[in-house]
Design brief:
InterPro entries: CbiM, CbiM/NikMN
Distance between the termini: 30 Å
Subcellular location: Cell inner membrane; Cell membrane
Keywords: Cell membrane, Cobalamin biosynthesis, Cobalt, Cobalt transport, Ion transport, Membrane, Transmembrane, Transmembrane helix, Transport
Helix content: over 70%
Function: Part of the energy-coupling factor (ECF) transporter complex CbiMNOQ involved in cobalt import.
Pathway: Cofactor biosynthesis; adenosylcobalamin biosynthesis
CATH architecture: Orthogonal Bundle
CATH class: Mainly Alpha
Structural class: mainly alpha
Radius of gyration: 18 Å
Order of helices and strands: HHEEHHHHHH
Strand content: under 5%
Length: about 230
Amino acid sequence: MHIAEGFLPPLHAVAWGAASAPFVVHGVRALTREVKAHPESTLLLGASGAFTFVLSALKIPSVTGSCSHPTGTGLGAILFRPPIMAVLGTITLLFQALLLAHGGLTTLGANVFSMAIAGPWAGYAVYRLLRKSGAPLMVTVFLGAFFADLVTYCVTSVQLALAFPDPGSGFLGALEKFAGIFALTQIPLAVSEGLLTVLVMRLLMQSSRSDLVRLGVAKLTGGAGAQQEATAR
């Protein structure tokens, strides 16, 4: 997913940066409010960011100028909602560009839009829709993480197709080629990420259940039986 440094035309790089900026600014405000209101969230926020950093650093060569890898953004989006995940994802991408030569500064806006904005929003939308329909929590977590990963690569395919349309078939022809190549590696990766996210969520249910209840992910138990699900934010 990480588009390499200098790979996008300058106009495209600037445009994606401008498109991403409002989401990141909004996310910074949401993150500030969360930390001020609930300082105890700091540890879980750090764990969500670390999960994203580690998974998205596992790159597999794919299309020229980009790569395939898990994203790790579904977990943070489910726990803290997509605006905060936009900030955590941006920090991850910035550090990877500076320290690992993974992605780049000129392509930061494009990478943020696909991995830290579009993917988390898509995954969270699937998660919320299924939760409202009464699906089991772990099913919704799996599908939320799956689609957060897969949509990231769909958006990256669009970004690359816009920048490098096919000489004969234009944007649609390029999109078909980019998406087709990505699909070979990304669908199995998305399934794997979904399963890993379920495993992490099960561990959090054991170690940080009170935090998950406050965040609206888990249900209150005990007393006179199971309580209603905590009010979703």
